[in-house]
Fold this protein.
Amino acid sequence: MLTVGGAALTAPPAWAEFADARAAMKAVLGDAQPQTGRVALQLAKIVEDGGSVPIAVSVASPMTAADHVARLHLFPDKNPTPFAATFRLGPRCGKAAVSTRIRLGESQTVFAVAELSDGSTWMAASDVVVTVGGCGGIIDEAETVTPVKTRIKVPESAQSGKVIQIKTMVTHPMESGHRTDAAGAPVPRRIINRFACLYDGEEVFGADFHPSIAANPTLFFHLVASHSGTLTMEWLDDDGSVYREQAEIAVG
């Protein structure tokens, strides 16, 4: 566990394997029945390579202290692990919009579910045809020696109260545990399981990742530039490693 400015970056709870997205949703949401609406899901209708599929989710919300999106979830229905990510938001994000890349093992339906601060839940779904699945297969030995590197793109300056976009990427195999080596032996799971963005030590956005997130995960999100300070990005690896990158932002 790493502590930064009083905020602790710890691994998310371990989730069991689920039969499908509906079972995963119930484990996360309990008896809540998401309504259709408010959530917009951008996902190609046909993808040639299921190993890295861009996906963007946004929610119609004022993102105020009294009315905001608290969490966003992605559930790919027919993946070996039908749970891709949970994004932790709040009013300091300013805009409820997140982009990343996921793995899709076959043609299926992907669900995006938003939990709002008023306790309501909302959902959108999109069907996608996958030409070549991206969850299984034989691991390329070169993938096991790729060094982990982090990248962030943050505006150097911003107006006070303006919503800015943060872009991040980490080079990491995100080994799902569903592949084998050349000898046919299972390759152990090893993923980045948690991400946090801290603004002068306070978490303003975070994510819990599962094996359905693609290798070299990208993450685009937003925050309100309230004051000049330090943005710290943290990625937590299954092996306990923590990768960190910082950037200064001038707010006038």
In short: The mean pLDDT is 89. The chain has one domain: 16-251.
